[in-house]
Each structure stands twice: as structure tokens, then as C-alpha cells.
Design brief:
Length: 62
Amino acid sequence: MSENIKKIKLTLIKSIIGTKQSHRATVRGLGLRGVNSTAELEDTPSVRGMINKIHYLVKVEV
């Protein structure tokens, strides 16, 4: 069953300095630390919603 789960690769491309506190928490919740850090996550509706919230900070690769 785990073979059918799609993955999304996220890269933080902008600094979180000067952003809203909730956006900073979302970045940390996705597993991103500093600029140019990457995380590979499952493609779920909750992850998509988090990405949509901070779309201006990250680069998304499917």
C-alpha cells in the first residue's frame, strides 16, 4: 500500500524572518529548518493546505 503514496519535495527558498508567527510554525511543522533545506512529504490534503499557506516561501516539486 505504501508504494502508491505520492511524495512532494519541498525546498525553503526564502527566509522566515519577518513573516507571521503562524507561517513560521507551518514551515517548522513541514520539517523545514533554514533556507535551502528540503523535506520529502506525503501528498495529503493537510500537507497541501500547509503548502498553500506558505506558497511564497517554498518551491514545490512533485
